[in-house]
Amino acid sequence: MDVVFADAALEDLELNPDARTAWAEAIVRAFRRKMRYIRDATDERDLRRLKSLHFEKLKASGSQSDLYSIRLNDQ
Q: By the number of CB atoms within 10 A of the CB, which of 14, 42, 57, 71 ranks highest?
């Protein structure tokens, strides 16, 4: 799937193993693992099949009607 980041820091965090962040290492690992799932997916159906992602459409309107969420951890 194609991914467009609204935040350049998140894109850097995904692509740069040496990226610095204030987030805990466990969160960074989870983020990178979930991004691999997203990149490997052909379409959203692949993500829906992975129940552990908790993939869901966000309630939004207008230009933000195509937003989805994935949980990084159980919190």
A: 14
